[in-house]
Amino acid sequence: MTGIWLALAVALAGGVGAACRMTLDGVIKERVRVPYPLGTTVINVSGSLVLGFVTAMAAGLGPWAVVLGTGLLGGYTTFSTASYETVRLAQEGRWRVAVANGFGMLVVALAAAALGLWLGGLAA
């Protein structure tokens, strides 16, 4: 799969990832009432874990690694929303929650990506 077909597959997968993100975030907001953007954290951490796994498996996945990594997981995860939510929390004077959201999510997402790379290395 190359050229236009790869680009179309990435675009389609990105749309699916964005729809999954919207759905999961909505379900979490509906079921878990906390003054913290938990949905975004769950989405970014789980996406980092899966992207680590896909990256470790990339050689065996061929062009599907791009479709899954860039498309699906690129549409699913959301750094921009996490950044906005952190700024919003700080503007509201909720500094501890803002710091926990910004730095905490970064640390946990990095750990999840490392775990995904390790697990993918075991499976490869």
Automatic annotation (TrEMBL):
Membrane topology, from the record: Multi-pass membrane protein
UniProt entry tagged with the keyword Metal-binding: yes
Residues involved in Na(+) binding: 74, 77
Cellular compartment(s): Cell membrane
Source organism superkingdom: Bacteria
Main location: membrane
One Pfam family matching this protein: CRCB
Activity regulation statement: Na(+) is not transported, but it plays an essential structural role and its presence is essential for fluoride channel function.
Keywords: Cell membrane, Ion channel, Ion transport, Membrane, Metal-binding, Sodium, Transmembrane, Transmembrane helix, Transport
Catalytic activity: fluoride(in) = fluoride(out)
Ranges annotated as spanning the membrane: 34-54, 61-79, 99-119
Function of the protein: Fluoride-specific ion channel. Important for reducing fluoride concentration in the cell, thus reducing its toxicity.
Family: Belongs to the fluoride channel Fluc/FEX (TC 1.A.43) family.
Descriptive protein name: Fluoride-specific ion channel FluC
Organism: Microbacterium horticulturae
